[in-house]
Structures are given as C-alpha cells and as structure tokens.
Fold:
Amino acid sequence: MWSHGIVDASIGSGESVSFQNMICRACDRSNSSVDVRQTLYVNGIYELPFGRGKQFLNHGGVASHIFGGWELSGIAAARSGLPVNITMTRKASQMLDGNTSSQRPRLVPGVSIYAPTRTINAWFNPAAFSTPAMYTWGNLGRCAATGPSNYEFDTSLQKRFLVTERLALNFRATAYNLFNNPQYANPASNLSKSSFGTITDILNDGATGSGAPRRIEFYSVLSSDPRRRPPAAGAPV
Structure:
C-alpha cells in the first residue's frame, strides 16, 4: 500500500503545531508527521502434511493423531520510516518576531542530510546544516527527513485435539516479532543538542502491540463444539 499525508498545521485529532514563521503558514506545508509512504502486509496459513489423509503419518496411529491437524500461520509486516522534523534552538533576540518555537536550520547545498552510513549512533549528517543569519528563518522544510524503516514477523501454530465426540481442546502457540528484530524509533532531531541524530528508543517497549520485543503466548481452551477454532491472534478471548 502507498500513501502520502500532507499538512500545514494539524497533525490529527485536533492537535496543531507551531509555525517557524508565524506570518507564513504555507512555508510549513510538508509531509505529515505520521506519513508512512509504503506499507506491506503478507499473511498465510499452511496445514502441515501430517496425519490421516496427508502425505506423512497417514496410517491413523498414535503419531498420526499427535502430529496431524496442525496449522501454521504467519503475518509479515513492513513499512517505510516516519518523517522527522529537524529543528534547532534559537534565541528570541535572533528572530524578527521573537518566536523561537519550531525553528529549523539552513540546508547546506549539495550535502546529504543523512550520515554516509546510517546507524543508531549517527543517523544524520550535522555538516548538512547551518544556523540561519540573524533575523532570518531556516530554509529546511518541516519533516524533511525520515527515520528508520521497520519490519516484523508474527507466527502461530495451532490445533484442535478431540477429547470426546463433543469436546475438543483448542491449543495455539503464538510468537510476535519472531526474530526479535529491533523496531527503532526516530532519532533525536534537535540540531542544537549533542544527542542529534542518535536513536535511543524502540517503537514500543510495552508487552503488547506491534514494535515490541519478541514475546510468546500459549492459548488453550476446552470447547463443547469440536469445530470451534481458537480466536485469531490478538482477538479477545
């Protein structure tokens, strides 16, 4: 999926941002702070080839009952990086209107804003920016840079075990962020601070939700309807 969010003030939910030049709203027309250009989701379900009527262990014995009937499913998600608004700290005495909020630097022509090799310790190239002259504003656009892209793989293995003719045990094991891939947040974006260009956080340090570290869940429930499947991963029980 491709999308492009463009704004000049609002960032959603009635919130607003301050302008660099208070008499030039159009000068702050830019990518939205939540503009994600490319998003990809791929999912699939595969019934393992074991058990009665399958390629392997189809004799109906104990091993067939244990290993047969398992379903493997997975979701792969990837997205491009979020916009970053590079700013700097300026004194009110340097500005015509005394406004010091949302001030941006001047862009040095011909120099890339990104480090030659982008890492979590050096995402941007400080040499690409300079301080605007007294009583002038920076020419770098708002949200002109982007942070790191992210991807995640979630997978689950599930099966229904028939206990009696009318009773079944539904079991599922789910792994979120299976490969424990770091989901980095945006780098520090204030040019005036020593932390500029460094990434110190991940998208989600909680126990649930996308962007969190790897976590594994086990789910089981007895059902009086042997046809009932476990709820989808993330659905309420």
Q: What stands out?
A: The CA atoms of residues 187 and 199 lie 4 Å apart. The longest helix spans residues 62-67. Helices lie at 62-67. The mean pLDDT is 85.
